[in-house]
Amino acid sequence: MERKEIIVKTYEQLVRAVEILEADIIIVSGMIACAGRPIYLRSGQIVRGADKFSGLKFNFEDQARSVIFLEEFSKVQNLKIDVAANSYPSADRMQAVFEINGRCAVLENIFAEIKVYESRAQRYRQYAGIYPRHELQLAGTVYFRCRGCYVVPLAYCPLATSRLVSCGVKLICEGGKIPEFDRFELRGKNFVIDIRTAVK
Questions:
Q1: pTM assigned to the model
Q2: Is residue 30 part of a domain?
Q3: Is 3 domain-assigned?
């Protein structure tokens, strides 16, 4: 059966393609400014950038919140993600750029820049690039550039199958808090992890 593919250039088109038309493949063309509402991918849905300049931009005037939820077999591919917030999330639950809520979800060739401007987070949780509640597959280059002392590229989920599977990946974590990789089960071949300090 032929898969339904839709090209989107605005936030409204993106939401319609994902939630109403239930497209199998959503191709993001250009840098789309998104509202504060998160994006929930259905099982098997793919969001893909049209080129290296395409992606999604989120700007929160208050607390950082989760922006993309992946269910089983869903994939985000070849996409830039830019998230900025004035403060860290409240302490009631973890918030992350990518929340992995289903098995065999995939992140491939991702460049994410995360900025939280608040200098202290004593009453708040850290903000994560990825929060994997299930096994997550990584491929290509997955790059998290973090700006903020309490921003962590990869957060450990104590109730999850904390397993990362490499399909040939270079995971680059620049700035922020260093992930606790010793708490994760790393599987697959060619799993390269590159930890970098923040750029001044």
A1: 0.91
A2: yes
A3: no
Give the range of the structural domain holding residue 160, as residue numbers without chain letter.
Answer: 22-196
Position 109 in a domain: yes
The residue ranking higher by pLDDT, 152 or 198, is 152
Evaluate whether residue 11 is within a structural domain. Answer: no
Domains in the chain, number: 1
What secondary structure, in 3-state letters, does the chain show? CCCCEEEECCHHHHHHHHHHCCCCEEEECCEEEECCCCEECCCCCEEEECCCCCEEEEEEEEECCCCEEECCCCEEEEEEEEEEEEECCECCCCEEEEEECCCCEEEEEEEEEEEECCCCCCCECCEEEEEECCCEEEEEEEEEEEECCCEEEECCCCCCCCEEEEEEEEEEEECCCCCCHHHCEEEEEEEEEEEECCCC
Q: How far apart are CA 104 and CA 121, in angstroms?
A: 33
Please tell me the distance from the alpha carbon of residue 159 to that of residue 169, in angstroms, as a whole number. Answer: 25
Distance set, CA 123 to CA 36, 92, 117, 139, 177 (Å): 22, 10, 15, 35, 17
Cα–Cα distance between 143 and 168 in angstroms, integer? Answer: 14
* pLDDT (tens digit per residue) in 2-37: 678 999 999 999 999 999 998 999 999 999 999 778
Question: Residue type at 43?
Answer: S
